[in-house]
Amino acid sequence: MQYFIMDAMQRIAFDELRARVEHVLLALGLEPARAALSARLTAETDRDGVKTHGVARLPRFARWVREGWINPAAKPERVAAFGAIERWTGHRGPGNLAAHAAMQRAMEIAGEHGLGCVALADTSHWMRAGTFGWQAAEAGFAAMCWTNTLPNVPPWGAKTPALGNNPLVVAIPNDAAPIVLDMAMSQFSYGSLSSYAARGVELPVPGGFDAAGNLTRDAKAIEQSQRALPIGFWKGSGLSMVLDVLAAMLTGGLATNQIPRDPAKEVGQSQVFLAIAPQSLTSMEELNAIAQRAIDAVHAAEPIEAGKPARYPGEAVLATRAESMRLGVAVEDAAWEEFVKLELSLSHP
Amino acid sequence: MQYFIMDAMQRIAFDELRARVEHVLLALGLEPARAALSARLTAETDRDGVKTHGVARLPRFARWVREGWINPAAKPERVAAFGAIERWTGHRGPGNLAAHAAMQRAMEIAGEHGLGCVALADTSHWMRAGTFGWQAAEAGFAAMCWTNTLPNVPPWGAKTPALGNNPLVVAIPNDAAPIVLDMAMSQFSYGSLSSYAARGVELPVPGGFDAAGNLTRDAKAIEQSQRALPIGFWKGSGLSMVLDVLAAMLTGGLATNQIPRDPAKEVGQSQVFLAIAPQSLTSMEELNAIAQRAIDAVHAAEPIEAGKPARYPGEAVLATRAESMRLGVAVEDAAWEEFVKLELSLSHP
């Protein structure tokens, strides 16, 4: 898919990107240490090639801060605990900072108990889901985490949205190359659909239903019907629902059916962070060997296209990350322009 | 899909079915209490409408016991522990009994720590995955559990199997109606494909690739290519892999790449049982209300077919269960014939 590569883009040195994002976040009212951390997570998202959830989302974040949907000063806080499980509230502060703190605490608990869970209510968009998987895996922990969202996917058998696309992350430690799965419950995000639609490119696999109710690869038709497909049809529909209900039960916070349907007001999500310490039972050397054998088995499967072996989750991220550090972080021109506008608006308010 | 209902079948009273299975298991060498439990789990599988994994699998189980692949006397045993996580081995005993003991222990730990995990190595086929989700949800716990399997699904981008279909269960307590998701990582099992092929019915959605590498709804073509589709294409491929690696790391047992590729010798699986006690943080009344609101939201979505609302995971099971208790448990004639043959062979060995 040469399209992604040929989109007009800038390459920005990682440190410059991080520093400029930090500057913006300071101007938006984040405390210095929090601005620095959030800026790093944001720049790392672009560095890793997840262009939809890094710098490109800052203008929206800024708008939400200005409109009072997100409180830049609000810090996550523990409100209840029982053994290895804790309940936190995000107080509608910046979602990536609350999620980072929650995963950090889940790992601390796992270090003590083998397992640890932090259930975070009343937070805001955590930006890139995978961020918190990489955070755990790079610290030597396995982890699962997920968030609920506003209703944006019809349940299997229905036409109108009642489920979230509830991204799920599963992360596995491996010194050479962590294995990190980051997947939403819809086959394609609406962001991805609009990118295909704008480029006039057919989806690689069916992504939803058209107005007539037929499965289609036409992104525009799915944007119009608002009938995105859950992964695995009835299966992803079920998985989305159980993740949402479990998040609402553990956090005591909002379920998808209680989150405003307006994407411009999507706050108050519930999230679950589960860390597991496999090193409490097995040495890191042995864990690395288990991961490497699994990676080798996937690579050894006969590829459909000669010379293009199947990949493991996270493999493409690591390749993009290395390229970004060598050549600079790729940011699409349109996103960069918006970011520079935001910088200007904050320096001359 | 009238086909399933119109297949020639018997209706057997639940208690008779359970008692006759128990008799068979006693004859195969299981201790009385273990034969009784395994018989109940098996009869409940048919009662709940999961015909592929109940009585229909007993002839295979008997063959494996006779051939020494499964040791009917072997009991699961704890080999290591750290806080809320324990490592057990199944010693290749009956898989459903080992899994039931593992989930029971995970719930005990969760009762103490809020969360509990038992990682079970070297077990055998656990029969119906959902069994252990219902076990947890009916006891008031949320749970996740999964198993790895032999390599039977090609990773996305490859033609030859390197991943298992690794069934995953997520269970949610709800007094009126637990929500229990039981899903394999392939869109259709090979058992289901062969049933469609035998009936000459097209799959409702694409289920794999034909020999030419095109996505197809032709079950026979997929049986021939052995290229079953992971749910959500690249997404299920990734999810299958991380579940397998995490199971191998936590159990210290076999990964999919180490399990014999011959379905007649599929033993030694690794399984993870994670129990969560939401009641440690929230009353059961509140949990019931959260579940009911989510069920109501799914039911309220506008159905594709008028009068057929979308369903939540487990809803069909509960309907079938009620019917089975009223009319008797439906068992297909062919499966029943094989079961009666097995009974006879054991009473006149």
The 3D shape of chain A can be described as globular
CATH architectural group of the largest domain in chain A? 2-Layer Sandwich
Number of domains of chain A: 2
Give the rounded overall mean pLDDT of chain A. Answer: 95
| Rg of chain A (C-alpha, Å) | 20 Å
Q: What is the terminal-to-terminal distance of chain A?
A: 41 Å
- What structural class should be given to the helix and strand makeup of chain A? alpha+beta
Q: How much strand of chain A?
A: 15-25%
Q: Strands across the major sheet of chain A, in which order?
A: 2-3-4-10-5-6-7
Low-confidence runs of chain A (pLDDT<50, min 5 residues)? 1-6
Q: Could you tell me the number of beta strands of chain A? A: 11
Largest sheet of chain A: 7 strands, mixed
- Order of helix and strand elements from N to C terminus of chain A: HEHHHEEHEHEEEHEEHHEHHEH
Oligomer: homodimer
What does it look like?
Two copies of one chain form a homodimer. The N and C termini of chain A lie far apart (41 Å). With 349 residues, chain A is an alpha+beta fold. Chain A has helices at residues 2-6, 14-27, 32-47, 58-67, 95-113, 130-138, 190-199, 219-225, 234-251, 284-300, 315-327, 333-347, and strands at 9-12, 77-82, 85-89, 115-123, 142-147, 168-172, 179-183, 208-209, 215-216, 269-276, 329-332. The model of chain A is unreliable at 1-6 (pLDDT under 50). A seven-stranded mixed sheet of chain A has the order 2-3-4-10-5-6-7, with helices on both faces. The first copy, chain A, has a two-stranded antiparallel ribbon with strand order 1-11. A two-stranded antiparallel sheet of chain A has the order 8-9. In chain A, helix 2 crosses helix 3 (32-47) and helix 5 (95-113) runs parallel beside helix 6. The first copy, chain A, folds into two domains: 1-67 and 314-349, Hypothetical Oxidoreductase Yiak, Chain: A, domain 1, CATH 1.10.1530.10; 85-186 and 230-300, 2-Layer Sandwich (Ribosomal Protein S8, Chain: A, domain 1), CATH 3.30.1370. Chains A and B meet through strand 4, strand 6, strand 7, helix 9 and helix 10 of A and strand 4, strand 6, strand 7, helix 9 and helix 10 of B.
